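Subject: for your reference before the review

Hello V.,

The reviewers asked for a structural picture of the protein, and I figured it would be easier to keep everything in one thread rather than splitting it across files. Below is the amino acid sequence we used in the manuscript, unchanged from the supplementary table.
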Amino acid sequence: MSTMTAAVSNGFMARLKQRMNDWFGEPPEAGIDALPVRVHGTEFTRTAAAPVHVKGFDQPLVWVTFALLMVGLVMVYSASIAIPDNPRMGAGYTQTHFLIRHSISLFVAFVAALLAFQVPLNTWERVAPWVFVASIVCLIAVLMPFIGKSVNGARRWIGLGFMNFQPSELAKWGVLLYAANYMVRKMEVKEKFFAAVTPMGVAVSVVGLLLLSEPDMGAFMVIAVIAMGILFLGGVNARMFFLIAAALIGVFALIIASSPWRRERIFAYLDPWSMEHALGKGYQLSHSLIAFGRGEFFGVGLGGSVEKLHWLPEAHTDFLLAVIGEEFGLLGVLVLLGLFLWLTRRIIHIGRQSIALDRLFPGLVAQGVGIWIGFQAFINMGVNLGALPTKGLTLPLMSYGGSAILMNVVALAVVLRIDHENRVLMQRGGRL
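And here is what came back from the structure prediction:
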């Protein structure tokens, strides 16, 4: 018994030492298991007896993704069924208008995902800078007259006929690929602050300026977090990471302070029930909270929501979770939260496995996708629950929005490709 206790204690101390080394920037001990990037865990180590996995892909990941997409389709229909009765929407809308458009978006996303799965990760690595350049071009194009579509004062969409494409979603994918590619190319300068951070800082700043011109601060926040996360996971030490985080917080604070309507959102978030805000900037938040309150523990049942009947604006997009909370209650929200937590953890797991196999670019891409989906879901849920100020971010894989669905599904298809290549690599003993 004492021997077992000693072994557990030694293992705990070893993990604690490894974690402290990661945080404070000390170089890893020399050996075959020393990796140039952060893996954060002990289950992935390179040994001569590497486990052999059956070729294929992660089926639970596919089924969880499919479940979220189908639940999203049903809830978009439920949340938008009363929109044709709204006189502000004008004529030409039917009860199935958004259901049909969302179904078309899912079909387009499925086809794009099949194509993305066929592309090897070394190809994605080669074209990463060009995908980033293409996203910049699209962000510039959307600001031009007669190209970009303006809705409610925001110019964020390019009309493609069968769907409206939002370049900010492509920008998330472009920055993710560019950041992963950059860290692989610049691995030798990761301990030098200006050499490691400046090029990525310039790239994110250019994207940020274009996004703020739309304006779309929510997408800028997601992109900044993706870039910062990949820099950290790529090996930038903790001191540099906290300096970057502090600089980003300062930038966002300055943006909010310099924008009167953004300041109003913050004040409305702090007190949404006041007479000043309840019918103004706090209107969406107050009705979102009312929806959760009506749902109680088990909800009022599918289709029974009252808030979607012209009380809660954008119920089928940014505030879809509020309708889910009203119709399925606390239980439904907790199940949904569990699915997103599992999905994010599984994506990160695939990335860690890839890094342990010396596949740095695929590993960083997978972890970047995990940060993207996890952080955006966290922001959307926080906004709906009143824990965070209102931001125009959709719930990944579920909210209405063709380009968001398209890029989310493509990103997950690339993660499945990474997992497939990992399995092939382990089966063939280190050869793809």
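For the response letter, the relevant points are probably these. The two ends are 45 Å apart (CA to CA). The first strand starts at residue 148 and ends at 151.

Happy to draft the paragraph if you're swamped.

O.
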